[in-house]
UniProtKB/TrEMBL annotation:
Name this protein carries in UniProt: Oxidoreductase
Chain segments annotated as coiled-coil in the UniProt record: none
PANTHER family, A to Z: OXIDOREDUCTASE HTATIP2
Species of the source: Paenibacillus sambharensis
A Pfam family recorded for this sequence: HIM1
Listed Gene3D superfamilies: NAD(P)-binding Rossmann-like Domain
Lineage, opening ranks: Bacteria, Bacillati, Bacillota, Bacilli, Bacillales
SUPFAM superfamilies tied to this protein: NAD(P)-binding Rossmann-fold domains
């Protein structure tokens, strides 16, 4: 008999986070899904608990031990420099908040910590975006979490509230020119947010534990199992 699980999701209003929450609520293995949000989601479910959270003061989160002990923690926080308004604001969402959540997860004995970063994540990258993603990976690894799963998707596809030209172009290319995504180019194929969410759930449910990094093509393979 499997033990009932408790999921904690940060970034539930985002593209991957939204899909992930739906999956977790439908998964009988989870008895409770707690989302950490700035503003309440327009969603109700008997298993859903919404915690309005000030991510700038995450270390002061009420009841953090009870919330995180033994929990499966999913971090899908992320923004763009354009939306954030500056590199500093971007780094706060994509580096500081996930790392703070990782520290709390480690401190209070979370069972798993799963995070979405990006293809090309590298702390030494000359590209600011990739460098920030690489730094958060590096520093989460240094925490010594018992189970850390890192997902590096290619261009994410899905329905967003805001228009992103690059994603529209990527979706059109992916649909119109499927023969492009073979051999060494396979890893660059745009990927649906729902596929990433499913892979995250699969990893939490069946993953080998320890530290695992899933590139975009591996994410698709994991989701198909």
């Amino acid at each position: 008999m499997r033990v009932a699980l408790h999921a904690v999701v940060a970034g539930a209003s985002g593209l991957v986070g939204h899909e992930l929450v739906k999956l977790l609520l439908d998964n009988k293995q989870y008895e409770q899904v707690t989302v950490l949000v700035r503003r309440r989601l327009n969603l109700t479910h008997p298993k859903l608990v919404q915690r309005e959270t000030d991510f700038d003061r995450l270390e002061q989160l009420d009841g953090q031990r009870e919330l995180l002990a033994g929990a499966v923690v999913y971090c899908t926080l992320g923004t763009t420099i354009k939306k954030a308004g500056s590199q500093e604001a971007f780094a706060k969402v994509d580096y500081e908040y996930p790392l703070a959540l990782g520290r709390l997860a480690h401190q209070h004995g979370a069972a798993n910590f799963l995070i979405v970063t990006a293809m090309g994540a590298n702390p030494k990258s000359k590209v600011f975006y990739n460098r920030v993603k690489g730094k958060v990976e590096r520093d989460l690894k240094a925490l010594g979490l018992p189970s850390l799963y890192i997902f590096r998707p290619s261009l994410l596809l899905g329905k967003r509230s805001e228009f992103r030209l690059g994603e529209r172009i990527g979706a059109a290319i992916a649909a119109g020119l499927p023969f492009l995504w073979i051999g060494g180019l396979k890893k660059f194929k745009p990927i649906e947010a729902g596929v990433v969410a499913l892979a995250m759930q699969q990893a939490a449910d069946q993953g080998p534990g320890g530290e695992q990094v899933y590139e975009s093509s591996a994410i698709s393979q994991l989701a198909s199992k």
